[in-house]
TrEMBL record:
It comes from Actinomadura miaoliensis. It is a multi-pass membrane protein. Its main location: membrane. Keywords: Cell membrane, Membrane, Transmembrane, Transmembrane helix. Belongs to the chromate ion transporter (CHR) (TC 2.A.51) family. Signal peptide: none annotated. PANTHER family: CHROMATE TRANSPORT PROTEIN-RELATED, CHROMATE TRANSPORTER. InterPro entries: Chr_Tranpt_l_chain (IPR014047), CHR_Transporter (IPR052518), Chromate_transpt (IPR003370). It is found in: Cell membrane. This is Chromate transporter. It holds the Pfam family Chromate_transp. The keyword Protease does not apply. The chain crosses the membrane at residues 93-115, 122-143, 163-183, 204-228, 281-311, 323-345, 351-368, 375-393.
Amino acid sequence: MTGASEPGRGPAPPPQVGLLTIAREWGRIGCVGFGGPPAHIALLRRLCVRDRRWLSPAEFEDGIAACNLLPGPASTQLAIFCAWRLRGAPGALVGGLCFIVPGLLLILALAALFLSGRTPAWVHGAAAGAGAAVAAVAVHAALDLLPASRDRARSRTRWTLYLLLGAVAAVTVGPYLVLLLLACGLAEAAVRARPRPDTRTLPLLLAVPGVGGPAGLGTLGGLAWVAFKVGALSYGGGFVIIPLMQSEAVGDHGWMSAGQFTTAVALGQITPGPVVQTVAVVGYAAAGLAGGLLASVMAFAPSFALVLAGAPRFDRLRSSDAVQAFLDGAGPAVIGAIGGSAITLGLALEHLWQVAVLAAALLWLPVLRRGVVGTLLAAGGVGVLAALAGLPTG
C-alpha cells in the first residue's frame, strides 16, 4: 500500500507499517544521518517516498512545510511526523526515539571524553580546533537561510529591521533573546491584521516565564527549564540554540566555559542526528550523565507533543494567515540571531592559532561552500597538530 491519493478522495489512509520496521529504519537514519537537516530530509524522503512508497511526494512535501511552521528541530519533527503517518502515536514515539537515541549516545560519550578533567593534550587540541570553526558554521547557517526568508518577506524594510534586531539581541541581551523573537513575530502579525490586535496583550509577552526561569530550582531544575525553552521556542531550526543557550550555559549558570560551549556546538554538528543534541553536552557539563539525559528529554519533549497534537491539524496550520505572519516576523530575527552569535563565539577564542583556523573556516564554508562536517573535522585535526606542537589549547 502507498500513501498516494486518489483523485477526489483526499489522502489515502496511512499504511500500517510494523513498529519493528519503523524502529529499524528510523534507527538506521539516526546512525548515518551526518550533515544535519538536509541529510535527514533526503534520507527520510528516500525511505518513505522513493524506496518503500509509504507516502506520496505531495504528502512528504506537505509534512516538511508543516514541520517548518513549528518551533523546534524541524528534521526531528519530520521524522516523528512520517512515523506518525505510518503507525499513529505508537509509530511516532518509536520512530522519534530511534531517530534521536543513536546520536544522543554518541554525543554523551564524546562529552565524557572532551569534558573530562584528565583528557590528553591532543583531545583538548581537537576540541579547541573544532570549536574555533564554530563561528564560521554560524555565519554559513545564517547565509543559507537568508534567500528564502527574504523572498517570502512582504516588506523588505520590516524584514531588514527584524534581521538587525535579532543580530543585536544575540550579542547583547542573552536569555532575553526569546522575547525578542516572539516580539518580532507578534509585531509582523499585528501589522498584517485588520483590525489590529489589542496592544494591551503585549505586556503578557513580557511576562512569559521563559527568560531566566523561576528562581530556586537548583542545577537540575534550571537545566530542565533552559532545555525546555530551547525545544519549545527555537524557531528557525536547530542552530538557533546557540544564541538561546550560550549566555545561560556560560554566563548566567556557569555550567561550562566559553571554550567548552564551542566544543559542545562542534560535537552537535559532527555527530549524526539533530543538532539540538548539543543540549546533551551542556547538560553533561552541568550535572553529568543524568544532566545530559534530562536536558535531551526536556529539549525533545516539545517536538513529540507538537507533532502528536498538531499532525491531524497541519493543513489548517499551514493555511493560517496569522501563523504565516508570525513566522515571517520571527524568521528573519532568528537568522539575525544565528549570524550575531558568530560574534560572541569568535570573541570566545583564546589563542592566535584559533583565530587563523576561524579565518580559514570562513573562507572554506561561506565563500567556497564546503561541507560543515568536513570543515569541523579538519579544524579538529589542526587542533591536534597544534597540541602536538606544544601550542596552548586550554
